[in-house]
User: Fold this.
Amino acid sequence: MIELSVIIVNRNVKELLRQCLQSIRSQWPWPDKGLELIVVDNASGDGSAETISADFPDVKLIRNPDNLGFGRACNQGVALSSGRYIMVLNPDTVIRKGLFRSLIEFMDHTPGAGLAGPKVLNADGSLQPTFRRFPTYSNIIFSRKSPLSTILPDNPGSKKYLHQEMPLDRPRQVEALGGVCLILRKEMLKEVGKFDENIFMYLEDTDLCYRAHLKGWESWVVPQAELIHHWGKSTEQEKQEMAEEHRRSVYYYFGKHYNPSFIQKIYLKAGLFIHKLLD
Assistant:
């Protein structure tokens, strides 16, 4: 029986992907329990797919001829997976000892949890803000990439939005989790559906958490599980295109979930235009 299927969507980070896969293997705690590794390569031009085929022949590899975006590629991996749980993992990460055991045991003992994520750290050990509140018209100005948070990152509104004052002494329920590393319950996916493929990049994780929330599923951060995330090593190669995708995703998310009025649409477009000017 496959205990866990790990799905990694890769684009042009061959060496980091290699490091990620090696850390997964070295930190898997159960030799008698199956681990399934699935890499979905989004048209990398750095030889990533060829490296996986040559050096990691046991990894299931999907080679996309075009960049399909994060959510759609994740769904390809989910369709191929057979694990009891599914994990979505960024390629620019390094697994720390205890992550798999902590997350799987937490899910086993918390039946209401549809999703859970670890404590995500920078290479220097500092905390990355990978959990947050659901974006609304009143709090979107405090989001991590908003103009206000860019200019005044320590303002009280941004700290509240990003749960920066929440103690990480034990598992904590949050509204939304970032997609750096997510363990997903299959029953939740069957009820809620997979990632929204209309979102090319960004907010597909928040969208899934929100849809899960509407169906009564919980999202949790489990600080006993840790990993290192080399933030943005893939997206920085296409920085302007990805920034535009982020703005498009924000506008789509609000249109999908909140049915904005004409005035609210103007408000969103103005905020996103200011974001573009400051980008």
Remarks:
- DSSP finds ten helices and eleven strands in the chain.
